[in-house]
Amino acid sequence: MTKIDKAVVLAAGRGTRMRELTVDLPKPMIEVRGKPVLQHIVEGLRDAGVFRFVIIVGYHAETIRNFFGDGRRHNVGIEYIKQTVQDGTGRVVALARDFTGGSPFILSYGDILISPQNYRRVVDLPNDREAIVTVTRGEDVSKGGAVFVNERMELVDLREKPKPGEPTSSWYNAGLYAFRPSIFQFIAKLKPSPRGEYELTDAVRDLAHSGKKIQALELAGEWADVRDPEVLAKLNQQL
């Protein structure tokens, strides 16, 4: 078992579906239950034993930097990397290669809210697994990633936003991963997707197709992509 103590958090996006809520605020800084989504993520990972973070910032980067600083207030160390070109989740992860320094790392999208016990389950990467991809059920896979697994819950395919008529799955990519450094080799070979972006999910699929074992892990408890004002309102009602 490899214990992971580094995390890369993607927090560069604006979140246009949040409308006026993100005029002055990056989406990961929207408050849910009294604190920013990003703070829920940092604290959840910290409590699972992750103490070194790089946060990839972009839109209103200074809001995130001003809030977290060097991380000391949250008992972690935080560095920042600015994403200047928004060209997909693949390219943005590549920015963190030097930070990871050849070690395994956790990758989290910066706008997801999950039950904290799940973080403890992804920081232990089995020695015979190259990656962990978390999944959840009951979501519309046409809005995210459809994850295809075998009977051992090993990932065999991953498709971003499948269109009607394309193969689909009941497993939805939950946006929290554990990776060994090998993922960077596959990111480096990415070609733009039909949407014109370099997709991390294409690199994950290529990693699986190379014969490496990727574990799909179903999250327990709550999971939410804080994607629009309706989701936000519902989460804050559940206090």
Description:
The protein is an alpha/beta fold and 239 residues long. It has one domain: Alpha-Beta Complex (Spore Coat Polysaccharide Biosynthesis Protein SpsA, Chain A). It has helices at 37-47, 61-68, 89-94, 97-100, 117-122, 183-188, 200-209, 229-237, and strands at 2-3, 6-11, 31-32, 35-36, 52-57, 77-82, 105-109, 112-114, 124-125, 131-136, 145-149, 155-160, 171-179, 214-218, 223-225. The strands form four sheets. Strands 2, 5, 6, 7, 10, 11, 12, 13 and 14 form a nine-stranded mixed sheet that branches. The chain has a two-stranded antiparallel sheet with strand order 1-9. A two-stranded antiparallel ribbon has the order 3-4. A hairpin with a 5-residue loop joins strand 11 and strand 12. The radius of gyration is 17 Å and the shape is globular. The termini are far apart. The model has no long low-confidence stretch (mean pLDDT 94).
Q: Can I get a quick summary?
A:
This protein is α/β, with parallel strands linked by helices and 239 residues long. The protein has helices at 37-47, 61-68, 89-94, 97-100, 117-122, 183-188, 200-209, 229-237, and strands at 2-3, 6-11, 31-32, 35-36, 52-57, 77-82, 105-109, 112-114, 124-125, 131-136, 145-149, 155-160, 171-179, 214-218, 223-225. It has a single domain (2-237), classed as Spore Coat Polysaccharide Biosynthesis Protein SpsA, Chain A (Alpha-Beta Complex), CATH 3.90.550.
